[in-house]
Amino acid sequence: NVSHELKTPVATISGFAETLLSEGDENAEHVEEFSTVIFKEAQRMKKLINDLLELSRLESGKVSLNIQPLDMISLIKESIALVKMRNPIAKARIEFNEPGEELQFDGDPDSITHILENLLDNALNYSNDGGLITVNLERYGKKGVRVSVRDEGEGIPEAELPRIFERFYRVDKARSRKTGGTGLGLAIAKHLVENHGGTLEVESYPGKGSIFSFALPG
User: How far apart are the first and last CA of the chain?
Assistant: First the structure.
């Protein structure tokens, strides 16, 4: 729940800060190590709060979309570049299979970018060393688009799939915390897709990876 998710980083920050205060600068190695932990936990809490505010806004239903013509190929490339920049030491590669034609779509650029980034972040979090993440784009109907993000991670057990888009639900809790995940990315992505009248689906094969696909009608 929300209180538990917030208490965890707060407790970590408080504990390490208390140790630093009690030790002073007697141990320079501890100062650097503990300061790094405090900074990372503060960043995680900041992201968690921002995601909670975003999800609350989406769940209220009071969200207006800034619909405009979009070049989906450019939008996907920009999203991939942003995710790579935030994850410079990512252990998995991201490749985009560009379609053979330009694909225009009328949508909200911020929302679609947010969807893409959340799905890519999720794929990176659950990819294995040397894995490949593949992004595909195709026309959906006459004016819509379908985008899929495929990873080569551990996959999701079939019993877990019905809950995968719930807030704070994590298949691998330890791994999610280690990578800084908030457990809200997929829930936010689902709301953003549905605000466009679209659908977000997942296919998964234990031991082989997962495919998250969203289709947006034109």
Answer: 36
Whether the Cβ atoms of residue 183 and residue 168 lie closer than 8 Å to each other: yes
- For residue 199, the 8-state DSSP code is E
- Asked if domains 1-60 and 68-216 share a fold, the reply is no
Q: What is the pTM of this model?
A: 0.78
Give the start-to-end residue ranges of the domains of the chain. 1-60, 68-216
CATH 3.40.50.720 fits 1-60, yes or no: no
Kind of pairing between the strands at 144-150 and 209-216: antiparallel
- H-type helices in the chain, by residue range? 2-23, 28-59, 72-86, 109-125, 173-179, 185-195
Q: Could you report the per-residue pLDDT of 28-75, keeping only the tens digit for each?
A: 667 777 777 777 778 777 878 888 888 888 888 878 899 999 999 999
CATH architecture of the domain with range 68-216: 2-Layer Sandwich (3.30)
- Sequence-distant (6+) residues with CB within 8 A of 191 are 55, 58, 59
